[in-house]
Amino acid sequence: MLTKAYIKRIFPELTLIKSKSLMTTIVKIWLLASRRGNWQKIDDIPFTLLIPTSTSLIEHTRRVTHMAISVAKTRKKLKMDILIAGAITHDVGKLLEYERIGKNIVKSKSGVRHPVSGYRLAIEVGLPHKVAHIILTHSHEGDKIARTQEAIVVHHCDFIDFEIEKRATGCRIL
Question: What is the pTM of this model?
């Protein structure tokens, strides 16, 4: 079973969040998602099943978080706590969208995409609506929704990371 200390260790960017209650709730959502998804560890979960990759969900999440922070430092007037919280949690729903079968990680039978399951988890644990909004709108599901400024940043950082990974693997699909 995952612990609070484990989540804090794999996401050191949590220390950049000024609100201690927000930081605590981010840890809570990752723990809840891991429990619901029956994950004993999450270090080896790939960040996507759409292309062959050795990049983990944790590595991807941290890269998106760092890119978003860099944009925010340049762009200014963005709510940094909300942005960081949204970046760290944007893919938390993958712990419900994916499952481990033997040594393989595959799509779960739930059929629910991670932005939707992540949004539901965010509301359940009491993350601020602006953070839940980032989770819901970070992928294609959010294309018909007016994104907040912070959601725009996370959305684009997420796709930048995916597109670079796709090219690095030589994958031409999608």
Answer: 0.96
